[in-house]
What does this fold into?
Amino acid sequence: MVALNSSNKCDSAKIDRPTRSVRKIPTNRRHVTGYVSWRKTDSIPFESPLERDFVHRQEFAICVSSVLAQPCSIPFVTHSGRNETYTPDYLVTYAVADIAAGWEPSPLLVEVKSKEDWKLNWREWSPKWKAARRYAAEQGWRFKVMDETRIRTMSLDNIHFLMEYRDRDVPREESDVIVDDVRSLGIAKIDYVLAKHFPGLYRAEGVAHLWHLIATRRLDCDIGELLGDATEVWVPNGR
It folds into this structure.
């Protein structure tokens, strides 16, 4: 996943964070374009399957509060001396960690490119990426180029697996009991929760129920590890 633990102290009021895209992604028959549903309240456009997968990962991450596509235009000078502008793919904003202290994770300006593309074109693209790093630093942000080695990992495989359970119809009362139990324990293994709440013939039903609770983010786990009976779950802060 995107590095989520780095943070800096900044005055949010002084940073004029963009709220609208500066460029709309056009429909293109030669490329895969479309929209990812964002927590049932919005939709985020993508211009390639890799961008779609990147947005899926951010949508699942509880610590991510928003993703803005095509967030800003950055002037730069090419190797040949031409003045041009560069529009990064996304700006990822994270939830405030400590409002009272004014601490929050730095927003992340992102360019999504396949490893093959950036290795082939990095010399040509380096001026605009250097400009993006300078611009991001001036805003109190970070800038990263994300390729499939950072996006298409086990975390993404697990997210795709869990999404099959997100819309499953489960009894709300049972869900509340399970979540309250895990909250009281602090952390619990899937196997323990199944044995306590779904014994015997109900185990298969319980497995689907727990995947649903993780998919809907009522429970959390290490999404980068193999999911199974030994998976440890906990209740996310504020949930």
